[in-house]
Design brief:
binds glutamine, glutaminase activity, Glucose Oxidase, domain 1, globular, alpha/beta, 418 residues, disordered C terminus, seven-stranded mixed β-barrel, 12 helices, Rossmann fold
């Protein structure tokens, strides 16, 4: 069916702004947090990333759906976005891997979307006013009636969503080639490329439900523990934080991505806060403060870890503080990048060069050897640039240095090393 024959649809933001367009994907009504993603490619990976659960994604790239949907690129078993907003959808997909149109895929998963929207105007609105609740409907014609329902939906702040996306049962992603290490990966909304990147490096990955108890993580005798990306407010992640604190107290190597970075921050005693409109796209510049190197990276986050508070007059490391990108603001923050925690010395290792948001953390032992680290962005690069792939090697290196050498288990972790 050509889009011109699609029924009309309505998009209403919680502050009352209205956009009109045509129904795209499933017909009906949906609600969520309106966020925009600037990726020019990778819509299939975006749509199937569980971190987008309960979010309505606005694509700033005007043409969406051109390469259809294939069987190779999904990051999970379904499309997770709560709704989809595009400007000019492809009428006919064209790609050798394409199996179905994006429109059909959205419909098959019951995902309500809208096309023909001025996504530039909508994005500028979200940049100015911040991410906010939104409704899309192909059944409602009265914007005020839809607005009322938008305002009755829950906000992203305080939302505990990992349980809604995590695996219900543990499963194993086998190592590719010779097995060298075992990793326990806590699934807070994991993307399938992440265990794959580890498997490529000889890691057998045991993906565990978000509710897994510390004893069950330890029972696997893992060489390392991983915590994944995922939806919702990191302030609600008390259980993963407790599990991670147990892992860190035992000196087991740890690597975290995105939500995993926020959980790590909390385990180290740092706070988290909501960004005004977040980082979503595949060309965000991040600087490694330890080497000075800049990498171009894939992002999808609406919350961030607060800068450690120092003895200066800075309020809380939260939004106002991070927004001060003057040279003074930067040097004040960087001066307190290093902190002392109950597990040892930790530091902010990475920052986003657009707005100075914390993008990575590390924990060392007293001799300065790395023990655990995390990044707020997406080194698995699905989609996105591969600049940050070295982080998977770093995790493997960490496990190699921590005691156990390989699956023959000739040496073991120093128990309780801290
Ligand atoms: N991709 C993620 O892991 C996102 C983490 C968290 N839900 C955020 O929005 O910041």
């Amino acid at each position: 069916m050509s889009r011109n024959t699609q029924p009309s649809a309505l998009l209403v933001l919680e502050d009352g702004r209205v956009f009109r367009g045509r129904s795209y994907g499933a017909e009906g009504e949906t609600f969520g947090e309106a966020v925009f993603s600037t990726g020019m490619t990778g819509y299939q990976e975006t749509l199937t990333d569980p971190s987008y659960h309960r979010q309505v994604v606005v694509q700033t790239a005007p043409h969406i759906g051109n390469t259809g949907m294939n069987d190779e690129d999904p990051e999970s078993r379904r499309i997770w976005v709560a709704g989809y907003v595009v400007r000019d959808p492809a009428r006919l997909p064209s790609n050798w891997r394409s199996r179905r149109s994006l429109d059909d895929a959205l419909r098959a998963d019951g995902v309500v979307g809208i096309s023909g929207v001025d996504t530039r105007a909508l994005t500028r609105h979200l940049r100015e006013r911040g991410a906010m609740r939104v409704g899309i409907s192909s059944t409602e014609t009265d914007p005020n009636a839809l607005l009322e329902r938008v305002r009755a939906t829950p906000r992203m702040e305080g939302a505990e969503l990992a349980a809604e996306v995590t695996a219900t049962e543990p499963y194993v992603v086998p190592a590719i080639g010779t097995k060298r290490y075992t990793v326990a990966a806590v699934d807070l909304g994991i993307k399938s490329m992440t265990p794959h990147r580890l498997a490529e490096r000889g890691v057998e990955v045991h993906v565990l439900p978000a509710t897994t108890a510390l004893e069950d993580v330890l029972a696997l005798g893992p060489d390392g523990v991983f915590m994944s990306n995922g939806p919702g407010d990191p302030e609600t992640a008390d259980h993963p934080v407790e599990v991670l604190r147990g892992v860190l107290a035992r000196g087991i190597p740890f690597f975290g991505i995105c939500f995993g970075n926020q959980v790590f921050g909390r385990a180290l005693g740092l706070g988290t806060y909501k960004l005004r409109y977040g980082h979503r796209g595949i060309n965000q510049p991040v600087q490694d403060l330890t080497t000075g190197k800049v990498e171009v990276t894939a992002h999808n986050h609406g919350f961030a870890v607060a800068w450690p508070t120092g003895s200066d007059d800075s309020p809380d490391g939260g939004p106002d503080d991070a927004a001060d990108t003057s040279a003074t603001g930067r040097s004040r923050r960087h001066a307190r990048a290093a902190i002392e925690t109950e597990f040892g010395p930790a530091r902010v290792t990475h920052v986003c060069l657009n707005d100075d948001v914390v993008e990575g953390l590390s924990l060392s032992d007293r001799e300065g050897r790395l023990r655990a680290f995390s990044v707020q962005y997406h080194p698995e690069a699905a989609a996105g640039p591969h600049d940050a792939a070295y982080l998977f090697d770093r995790f493997v290196g960490l496990m190699a240095g921590a005691g156990r050498t390989d699956s023959t288990g000739t040496t073991t972790h120093p128990e309780g090393a801290a």
